[in-house]
Write a structure and sequence with these properties.
This protein is mainly β and 116 residues long. The chain has one domain: Zona pellucida, ZP-C domain (Immunoglobulin-like, Sandwich), CATH 2.60.40.4100. Helix content is 3%, strand content 39%. Strands 4-3-2-7 form a 4-stranded antiparallel β-sheet, with no helix packed on it. A 3-stranded antiparallel β-sheet has the order 1-6-5, with no helix packed on it. It is globular, with a radius of gyration of 16 Å. The model has no long low-confidence stretch (mean pLDDT 87). Pfam families: Zona_pellucida. InterPro entries: ZP-C (IPR055355), ZP-C_dom (IPR042235), ZP_dom (IPR001507).
Length: 116
């Protein structure tokens, strides 16, 4: 566990450990949950489909492609235990592959019309 105060900046770093220097990381989705077993309902979305959803999120410079650095403000769920669990999904791509998910960035999915 890592203890922080409410609204304190929480800094994170994710690194890919590979002998291949031509790989890079992309933060696809990152959500927080009040329980460690459910990351689908009642979550706080920080990043989804590469799009920033939390206004306190900020990305930071990294000296290489296979390390991501970012932060967001710590928070607590109302009427819940003080623990918050984080789950992030990262995509590994070939560097300079401009058709890869890493180079698409934020992908906003269009809503489908409900048929009668």
């Amino acid at each position: 566990p890592y203890h922080v105060s409410i609204n304190q900046d929480l800094f994170l770093e994710a690194s890919l450990h590979s002998p291949d220097p031509l790989l890079q990381l992309f933060l696809h989705t990152c959500v927080a949950s009040p329980t460690r077993h459910n990351f689908t309902t009642g979550v706080h979305t920080i990043v989804k489909d590469g799009c920033v959803k939390d206004p306190t999120y900020a990305a930071f410079y990294s000296p290489n492609r296979y390390t991501l650095r970012f932060k967001f403000n710590a928070f607590q769920y109302i009427r819940s235990n003080p623990e918050v669990y984080l789950q992030c999904e990262l995509v590994v791509c070939r560097a300079f592959d401009y058709s890869s998910r890493c180079y698409q960035g934020c992908v906003r999915r269009s809503k489908r019309e409900a048929s009668s």
